[in-house]
Amino acid sequence: MEISCKILRKSIHTFLQNYQYLTTKASFLALPFSASILLSQALVPLSSSLFPQIYNHLKTLFHAAGFPSSHLFTILNLKVSQTITSSIFTFPFTLTFFLIAKAFIIQSLNKSGKNSSYNYKPILHTYFYNTFFILSANASTFCLLFLAFSFSEGIGNSSPSLTIFLSAAAVVFFSVILANALVICSMALTVSGMEGRGGYMAILKACILLRGKTTMALFLALPVNVGLAAIEALFQFRVVRGYYIGENSLFLVALEGVFIAYLYSIFIIIDTIVSCMFYKSCKIRETWIDKEDKHFLRIEFVEEENYYGYLGVKNFQELP
Fold first, then answer.
1. 207 and 293, same structural domain?
2. Rounded distance, CA 181 to CA 177, Å?
3. Per-residue pLDDT reduced to its tens digit, 261-316
4. Domain endpoint, select from 282, 297, 312
5. Which whole-number Å values give the CA distances from 48 to 65, 232, 242, 246, in the listed order?
């Protein structure tokens, strides 16, 4: 906890030191993505025909898999459908403005002298792998939940209290798996930007970096995500509600929406800075070695004693 607080303080200090630089160039790079994600979450479920199709397909899938028809799974289905719909509509902005802004911020914090175009390519490469990684994590989670509910029905336990308990446990389990997957993906993007290494190797190294530090990573991600959720709620209350009520002019509503999107961009910048500081706090050293005509990557964690990891094309080995 103490180390996490130090990383947060250092991240805020770094942001304030470079306040003018980050809040002008970086924030305006991320502004189109911020506006797209706020608008998609607010307007797409109401105006798009894609949202009910995804919702009905997931509802049919849950029913076919034997999931109970509980209120918790209805909320989960609603949130997953909304997230998928929003991700589809913001996908072009994510591949361009979001990743370019992330590469720009990492380049400004990285002392290697590599430009942002060098960082963007591996980050883009890693982002596609992250997408498949999250899909695989979701599929594996739903498969385990399907086995759990099938086993519960097989032994004849179908009481309402047990159903509510299993539903709550399933939602918590799904949330934990998804949170860990998102933390790994965030660290993989940081690794790609800091080292210029993209693809599955960035994800593997992110998993090694988070070894024994998952709780710290989740704690570091919590404040920013709470801030982003608060900004999304503010956008719903001030902009969307103001637009439908019509109590203010359209120009004032749009101006307030741009300002809220700008705040969303600021939090994206802070999240990227926190990820970079967390990456630097791991204090790792790497060396490429040859062993039996194969190339291995040795990663040494300075903070943790007696740990050496080998990453090879076919092997992963821990030495005593």
1. no
2. 6
3. 999 999 999 999 999 999 988 755 544 444 554 555 555 544 433 333 333 333 33
4. 282
5. 27, 19, 21, 22
Q: Are residues 290 and 214 in the same domain?
A: no
Same domain, 232 and 125: yes
In a shared domain, residues 176 and 85: yes
pLDDT one-digit tens code per residue, 177-224: 989 999 999 999 999 988 888 888 899 989 888 888 888 888 998 999
What is the distance in angstroms between the CA of the first residue and the CA of the last residue of the chain? 28
pLDDT at 304: 38
Say whether both 320 and 178 belong to one domain. no
Rounded Cα distance between 19 and 27, Å, is 10
In the chain, the number of structural domains is 2
Q: How high is the pLDDT of residue 309?
A: 36
Report the distance separating Cα 244 and Cα 94, nearest Å: 28
Q: Name 300's bridge partners.
A: 285, 308
On whether both 41 and 93 belong to a single domain, the answer is: yes
Q: Whole domain around residue 295: which residue ranges? A: 284-320
Q: How confident is the model at residue 78 (pLDDT cuts 50, 70, 90)?
A: confident
Same domain, yes or no: 213 and 292: no
> Quick one: how far is CA 57 from the chain centroid?
24
Please enumerate in sequence order all residues whose Cβ is within 8 A of that of 277, keeping only pairs 6 or more positions apart, or say none: 7, 10, 11, 14
Q: How much is the pLDDT for 319?
A: 35
Q: Are residues 193 and 255 in the same domain?
A: yes
Pick from 280, 314, 305: nearest CA to 212: 305
